[in-house]
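Journal club prep — side note

Before the paper discussion, L.F. wants everyone to see what a predicted structure for a comparable chain looks like in token form. Sequence:
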Amino acid sequence: MITAARAGEVAGLLRQAAQGEILPRWRRLDAAAVRTKTGPLDLVTDADEAAERVIEAGLQRLFPGCLVVGEEGCAADPALLGKLAGAELAFVVDPVDGTANFAAGLPLFGCMAAAIHRGEVIAGWIHDPVGDDTAMALRGEGAWIETAEGKRRDLQVAAPVPVGRMIAAVSWGYMAPALKAQVTARLPRLGAVVGLRCAAHEYRLAAEGHAHALVYNRLYPWDHGPGWLLHREAGGYAARFDGTPYRPVEHTGGLIVAPNREGWEELHATLIAV
């Protein structure tokens, strides 16, 4: 359904939105261009909304009849999210992942999309507007990064290491209080912990082999569908906290991403198990 050629078209669409709507606003936002949604840590900017409009229109042009579920569209109409499971072809879109970084003028933000066929992720894209390249994956066909000039390099996760040597991005902010207290107390058992405030770059970091593991609690599909497939096609393993497979239609239950199943089990025992 999504060929390599069509994947390239979607990558071009994300780049178009980045070049036309995101980068021109970066470090040029006035106070009125940045707003809060559910709370002070949940931001939206004019760039998020404008880029999502461009991407949605482009996807519907490329794939007539597809459902587009964007982060900002769902903020306005939460019922959109419920349509995902029954769609023959849907796209989830996060126009500016890492909005807090973007609004602060930091270069760690990304433009993400994933194609979902009958509830399963079949393609994913993470475009880096600043680096001007796109990490993409097709289910069963691998994962790679492609530059604007068409140069391509394949992705491979890091070699497994013991948990005491793992470099991990651990997002504990949305965990329940008891789990948050447990996880944060156990973080020194890892080799190192990083936090980029941007799932787009954290997934790219892991899929390129520069970090070993990722841990998330909240699972909105636009945040995880693209990166989960990217990491899987780069050779990695992921499952929810209870060991069940990740699915983009389930939005709770946490997620651990590791180089292999053994690494997942060791990280789960270290951080999550009681």
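L.F.'s comment for the group: The CA atoms of residues 263 and 269 lie 10 Å apart. Keep this in mind when we get to the figures.
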